[in-house]
Specification:
With 360 residues, the protein is α/β, with parallel strands linked by helices. 35% of the residues lie in helices and 17% in strands. It has 9 helices and 14 strands. Helix 4 links the parallel strand 3 and strand 4. Belongs to the class-V pyridoxal-phosphate-dependent aminotransferase family. SerC subfamily.
C-alpha cells in the first residue's frame, strides 16, 4: 500500500512519475540499458539534460538572461559556492536569519572569509516570525543579500520578496522551489536541493543571472565555479544523472497539472485546510505567526506532549508516514509538497479529529 508521506525530504514524489521511471528502468529510450547505466557524455543523456532544462525554463517562466545549473552537493554545497562566486574574502554580505538553514548559510559565508552582517534576526521569536520588510536596511557595500524564503524546520515562510534594490538577491528555495508562480527576475541567484518538489536527493538546481557569472575568486574550486559549470553544461564532472532524468519527468508532470498557477492554488488550499483544522482545535497548535506560515511545512504540537508517541504510532497504522517533527523543534510536522494530494491532507485531518476525540 502506498502511504501518504509527509516527510520534509527526501519527500513524496508523484506516483505517475515513479511508475514511468519504473517502466523505463531497464530499457530507457530503447537503448537496452537504464538511464542509471548510460554515459552522461552520450547523446541520449545530453538530450535528456537539455530537455529538463528547457522544461524548467517553461515551468518557471525563467527569463533568458539566467543560466540553469544541475549540480551535485545539494543546497549545502551552495552555502560555500555562493560566497566564493560573488564576493572576495573580507567583503560584506547581508543575511536575513529566520531559521536554522539561513543561519547555516551565514555561518558558511563567515567560514569563507566574508564579513556577515545580519540585517534581521528572528531568533528571539524562536524562529516563528519574518521581519517587517520596512525594517530591512542593506549595507551599501554588500556584495549580496541572502535569505531563505521557506524554512523547512520551523515552517516559516516569507509573505513577500525582500526589496534588495541594486544589491543581488540570493535565495535558498529548497523547500518551496516551483511550488507556485515566482517572478525570478527579482533574484540574482536562486538555488535549492531537489529532494522536496523536484526529485530525489543528490541534485541542486541553481539559477544565476548572467551578470553575476564572472565574479568568482581565482581560487574557487572548479566544481563550485558557476562560470566553469555553465561553459561545461553542468558536466565538468559526472552529474547526478538519475536525478536530472527524474527532474525532467517531474517537470512534465507539473505541466500536465496545468503549471505553477494550478499547482500553487492547490498548495494554498491544502495548507489552508490543515491550518483551519489546527486553529479550530484546543488540542493542536501551530507556533508560527499567521502571516509567516509556510504552505510547504506545517509544524504542530499536541496539548499534551506525552501523547506524541501514541499519535505517531496511530498515524503510521493509518498510512500517514513521517509526521514526527524535527528533533530540534519536537511535536509534529506535515510537509505538503507538490506531490501530496488533497486526499492525503484530508486523511490527516480526519485522523487528527479522531485522535482528539479519543484523547482530548
Amino acid at each position: 500500500m502506498r502511504v501518504h508521506n509527509f516527510s520534509a525530504g527526501p519527500a513524496q514524489l508523484p506516483l505517475p512519475v515513479l511508475e514511468r521511471a519504473a517502466a523505463e528502468l531497464t530499457d530507457w529510450r530503447g537503448t537496452g540499458m537504464s538511464v542509471l547505466e548510460d554515459s552522461h557524455r552520450g547523446k541520449d543523456f545530453i538530450a535528456c539534460a537539455a530537455q529538463a532544462e528547457a522544461a524548467f525554463r517553461r515551468v518557471a517562466a525563467l527569463p533568458d538572461n539566467y543560466r540553469v545549473l544541475f549540480l551535485a552537493g545539494g543546497a549545502t554545497g551552495q552555502f560555500s559556492a555562493v560566497p566564493a562566486n560573488l564576493a572576495a574574502r573580507g567583503a560584506t554580505a547581508a543575511f536575513i536569519n529566520t531559521g536554522q538553514w539561513s543561519a547555516k548559510a551565514a555561518k558558511e559565508a563567515k567560514r569563507q572569509g566574508l564579513n556577515v552582517v545580519t540585517i534581521a534576526d528572528e531568533s528571539a521569536s524562536h524562529y516563528t516570525t519574518t521581519p517587517d520588510p520596512a525594517s530591512l536596511i542593506i549595507p551599501a557595500d554588500a556584495a549580496y543579500l541572502h535569505y531563505t524564503p521557506n524554512e523547512t524546520i520551523g515552517g516559516v515562510e516569507f509573505p513577500y520578496v525582500p526589496d534588495a534594490g541594486d544589491t543581488p538577491l540570493v535565495a535558498d528555495f529548497s523547500s518551496t522551489y516551483l511550488s507556485r508562480p515566482v517572478d525570478f527576475s527579482r533574484f540574482g541567484v536562486v538555488y535549492g536541493g531537489a529532494q522536496k518538489n523536484l526529485g530525489p536527493a543528490g541534485l541542486a538546481v541553481v539559477l544565476v543571472r548572467d551578470d553575476l557569472l564572472d565574479r568568482a575568486r581565482p581560487d574557487v574550486p572548479a566544481i563550485w565555479d558557476w562560470r566553469t559549470m555553465v561553459d561545461k553544461d553542468s558536466m565538468l564532472n559526472t552529474p547526478p544523472t538519475f536525478s536530472v532524468y527524474l527532474l525532467g519527468l517531474i517537470l512534465e508532470w507539473m505541466e500536465e497539472q496545468g503549471g505553477l498557477a494550478t499547482i500553487g492554488a492547490a498548495n494554498e488550499a491544502k495548507a489552508r485546510s490543515l491550518y483551519e483544522a489546527i486553529d479550530a482545535s484546543d488540542f493542536y497548535a501551530n507556533p508560527v505567526e499567521p502571516r509567516s506560515r509556510s504552505w510547504m511545512n506545517i509544524p504542530f504540537t499536541l496539548a499534551d506532549p506525552a501523547l506524541d508517541a501514541d499519535f505517531l504510532a496511530g498515524a503510521a497504522r493509518e498510512g500517514l508516514a513521517n509526521l514526527k517533527g524535527h528533533r530540534s523543534v519536537g511535536g509534529m510536522r506535515a510537509s505538503l509538497y507538490n506531490a501530496m494530494g488533497a486526499d492525503g491532507v484530508a486523511a490527516l485531518i480526519d485522523y487528527m479529529t479522531e485522535f482528539e476525540r479519543v484523547h482530548g
